[in-house]
């Protein structure tokens, strides 16, 4: 069975959590005890309906304020496949949590309140989904019950969305638009009797037919080394295994490889997974490799195929989504984590802040505030071996870690 | 189980079939060992921590698991679990550290609850925090899953705790792609959850496929039991509080989770082997923690415990 990873997006109160709860309810994924808890708590809050957001808003502060603060990961499955849904917060203050949820997702469901239409936060989340290169976008026009299930209203919004979509640069993206009511359950799992004018798929029908892809599908072989395994037991006295996860491509015994940064050449001798040896392994696998030569390899080094080298540079330019209260300014230092590799990074220049409203506007800037997106230049203490984020999500993304607080302060996408 | 993407013509060769969840867990284990100086695996004797042990074996083969196991013994564990624990540790040649809640009670550091719903569940936290300090553990690996409970659904894979073991749930670090930031300040430590993204069914299917041994109480057996609040409780042991009028009856039951005896209820079951357990979980209409009285105390029970340093 395959798995589809989805994130919700859209502004505060547009109905993201309610939608997830509704999906769980209508696919019979809520167990009796969980459903009873929702019934009990809805009643206690004085609602005459089931407040499905209670299924995902797991923190006290969230339930008190009726908003989502941090991402919740929800699991369910249909006959077809397993789903992981990241229910993300809509409030601009928690954008970094939205990025956390969306970064591993293939699909983003962007909710729009039919009464309010496309608003600033809708644009921001669509912009971030584009930056992350989320392949499938569903615009769910929600709360159709509050606009009398009006076709006219929906068509007007549909036009608005089309105009928006025409402004993106990420043309391989798949876009769909569905009118729903998360609260009443129209077109979520069940076809709406209130919107007979809509002849398209329900949300779940649409999700079921999306072809799950892994994000490294078109990427070249990248094998970053996490740790070197040296058992030093009598059976495996000279064993030296390079443990890591394979991102993109494949590896087979006999493949000629290059080790970065040294540039040393060698050949794959064995591919271990646990106590078994294999001839070949595909992307996504956590493996242990041995090489025909006794080479010097340590954590952070990367094994690539001799003919498929990434860029090796000490300077780079990247789009940054800033996540720390302390603004990002030039001439500061951060620890840069690129996969399992850490180097020191100096911020040479904060070039521009990008508007997230698709106006294409870029303002010159000297610093980036929390939740702002901009372009920066970095200088590194050691060369990094990377691809552009477009080519390989793993090998083109990085985080910046604050040297004092150790918190993850920003996420970068290499140009 | 989710299988990664491999072309069909390659199926005939000796090609590794990747289970994505397993691969992710192994990746996390390796990050822990590479990023921390003193990791430890919190071992409860339950199916999730047993699964963790297998995943750790896979992550470091042919080397031994490079960290010890820590068991916080409430003194209210099922005897079957303790026997199982000792056998497993011996078989794999692992280092086991046991710290007892009873010691803290005897020293007067904590007071035990009394009465009908008394449990030592909360007291575990204190003993755990003491052990973390005693050994200077900087990463504690646990088997919590996000599908278990809605506060857990909010937690990161690397979850930073302060000196007091507290979880600052409103201010978690972003965790993007599969990059794990294990950098911490003095006094902080990290709780690590390698099977965050597994569901209960994923764990059981894995145990079946890997033929992992688990304690006998997970399978159907006859036991002296009594009923309270619509739940079935073991009457075999004095640590489970029972009122005079709560009648003992023999029932064929099994346990779906293995927590403290005093707060883990049984379910009626005919699942004598792993295949039938998997089948039963597939068809179940109540959640795993539905039979855990510690979660039923309030809507926010789990979140409150986590804030205080509970697993
Ligand atoms: N009438 C109506 N109300 C809805 C619908 N969907 C959601 N709501 C209500 O809108 C409010 C907000 O819903 P949530 O699901 O909490 O919104 P959210 O998008 O998750 O909000 P954040 O997570 O805080 O960004 C709640 O009162 C819901 O009951 C709908 O389809 N129709
Ligand atoms: Mg929400």
Could you describe the 3D structure shown?
The complex is a heterodimer of chains A (415) and B (311). In chain A, the strands form five sheets. Chain A has a six-stranded mixed sheet with strand order 2-3-1-4-5-6, with helices on both faces. Chain A has a six-stranded antiparallel barrel with strand order 7-8-14-11-10-15. Chain A has eight helices and 24 strands. The mean pLDDT of chain A is 94. Chain A is globular and about 70 Å long. Chain A has helices at residues 16-26, 32-44, 60-65, 95-102, 120-131, 151-165, 203-208, 393-396; strands at residues 3-10, 72-77, 82-87, 107-113, 136-142, 174-179, 223-229, 241-245, 250-252, 256-260, 264-273, 276-278, 280-282, 286-291, 302-305, 311-322, 328-329, 333-338, 341-354, 362-364, 367-368, 373-386, 397-402, 408-414. By secondary structure, chain A is α+β, with helices and mostly antiparallel strands. Chain A folds into three domains: 3-208, Rossmann fold (3-Layer(aba) Sandwich); 222-305, Elongation Factor Tu (Ef-tu), domain 3; 311-414, Translation factors (Elongation Factor Tu (Ef-tu), domain 3, Beta Barrel). Chain B is an alpha/beta fold and 311 residues long. Chain B has two domains: 2-203 and 300-307, 3-Layer(aba) Sandwich (Rossmann fold); 217-293, no CATH class. In chain B, helix 2 (47-60) links the parallel strand 2 and strand 3. In chain B, helix 1 (20-35) crosses helix 2 (47-60) and helix 6 (200-210) packs antiparallel against helix 7. Chains A and B meet through helix 2, helix 3, strand 2, helix 4 and strand 7 of A and strand 1, helix 1 and helix 2 of B. Strand 13 of chain A pairs parallel with strand 1 (15-16) of chain B, so a sheet runs across the interface. Guanosine-5'-triphosphate binds next to helix 1 of chain A.
């Amino acid at each position: 069975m395959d798995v589809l990873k989805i994130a919700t997006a859209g502004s505060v109160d547009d109905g993201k959590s309610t939608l997830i709860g509704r999906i769980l309810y209508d696919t019979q994924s809520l167990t009796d005890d969980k459903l009873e808890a929702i019934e009990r708590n809805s009643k206690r809050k004085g609602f005459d309906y089931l407040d499905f957001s209670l299924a995902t808003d797991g923190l006290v502060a969230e339930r008190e304020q009726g908003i989502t603060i941090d991402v919740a990961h929800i699991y369910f499955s249909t006959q077809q496949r397993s789903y992981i849904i990241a229910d993300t917060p809509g409030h601009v203050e928690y954008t970094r949590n939205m990025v956390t949820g969306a970064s591993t997702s293939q699909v983003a469901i962007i909710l729009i309140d039919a009464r309010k239409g496309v608003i600033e936060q809708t644009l921001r989340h669509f912009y971030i989904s584009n930056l992350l290169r989320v392949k499938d976008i569903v615009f769910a026009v929600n709360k159709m019950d509050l606009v009398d299930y009006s076709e006219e209203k929906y068509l007007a919004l549909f036009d608005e969305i089309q105009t928006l979509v025409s402004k993106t640069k990420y043309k391989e993206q798949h876009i769909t638009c569905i009118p729903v009511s998360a609260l009443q359950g129209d077109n979520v799992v069940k076809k709406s009797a209130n919107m007979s004018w809509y002849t398209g798929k329900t949300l779940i029908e649409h999700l079921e037919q999306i072809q799950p892809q892994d994000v490294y599908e078109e990427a070249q072989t990248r094998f970053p080394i996490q740790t070197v395994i040296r058992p030093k037991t009598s059976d495996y006295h000279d064993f030296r295994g390079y443990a890591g996860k394979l991102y993109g491509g494949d590896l087979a015994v006999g493949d000629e490889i290059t080790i970065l940064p040294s540039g040393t050449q060698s050949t794959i001798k064995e591919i271990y997974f646990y106590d078994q040896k294999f001839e070949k392994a595909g992307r996504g696998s956590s493996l242990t490799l041995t090489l025909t030569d006794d080479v010097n390899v340590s954590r952070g080094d990367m094994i690539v195929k001799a003919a498929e080298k990434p860029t090796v540079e000490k300077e780079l330019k990247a789009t940054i989504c800033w996540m720390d209260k302390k603004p990002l300014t030039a001439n500061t230092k951060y620890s840069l984590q690129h996969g399992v590799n850490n180097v020191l990074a100096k911020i040479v220049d904060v070039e521009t802040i990008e508007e997230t409203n698709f106006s294409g506007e870029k303002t010159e800037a000297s610093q980036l505030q929390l939740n702002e997106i901009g372009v920066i230049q970095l200088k590194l203490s050691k060369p990094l071996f990377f691809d552009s984020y477009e080519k390989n999500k793993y090998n083109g993304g990085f985080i910046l870690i604050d040297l004092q607080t150790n918190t993850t302060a920003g996420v970068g996408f290499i140009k | 189980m989710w299988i990664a993407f491999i072309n069909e013509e390659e199926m005939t060769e000796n090609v590794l079939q990747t289970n994505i969840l397993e691969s992710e867990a192994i990746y996390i284990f390796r990050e822990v060992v590479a990023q921390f100086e003193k990791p430890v695996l919190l071992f409860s004797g339950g199916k999730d921590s047993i699964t963790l042990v297998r995943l750790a074996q896979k992550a470091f083969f042919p080397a031994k698991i490079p960290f010890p196991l820590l068991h916080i013994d409430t003194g209210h564990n099922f005897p079957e679990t303790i026997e199982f624990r000792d056998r497993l540790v011996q078989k794999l040649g692992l280092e086991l550290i046991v710290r007892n809640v009873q010691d803290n009670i005897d020293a007067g550091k904590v007071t035990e609850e009394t009465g009908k719903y008394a449990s030592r569940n909360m007291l575990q936290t204190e003993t755990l925090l003491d052990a973390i300090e005693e050994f200077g553990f900087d990463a504690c690996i646990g088997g919590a899953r996000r599908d278990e409970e809605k506060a857990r659904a909010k937690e990161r894979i690397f979850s930073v705790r302060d000196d007091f073991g507290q979880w600052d749930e409103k201010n978690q670090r972003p965790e993007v792609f599969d990059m794990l930031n294990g950098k911490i300040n003095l006094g902080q430590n990290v709780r690590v959850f390698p099977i965050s993204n597994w569901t209960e069914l994923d764990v059981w299917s894995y145990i079946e496929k890997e033929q992992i041994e688990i304690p006998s109480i997970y399978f159907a057996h006859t036991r002296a039991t009594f009923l309270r609040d619509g739940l079935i409780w073991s009457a075999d042991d004095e640590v489970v509080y029972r009122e005079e009028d709560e009648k003992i009856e023999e029932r064929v039951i099994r346990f779906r989770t293995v927590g403290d005896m005093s707060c883990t209820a049984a379910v009626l079951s005919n699942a004598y082997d792993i295949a039938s357990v998997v089948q039963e979980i597939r068809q179940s209409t109540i959640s795993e923690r539905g039979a855990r009285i510690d979660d039923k105390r309030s809507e926010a029970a789990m979140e409150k415990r986590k804030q205080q340093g509970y697993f």
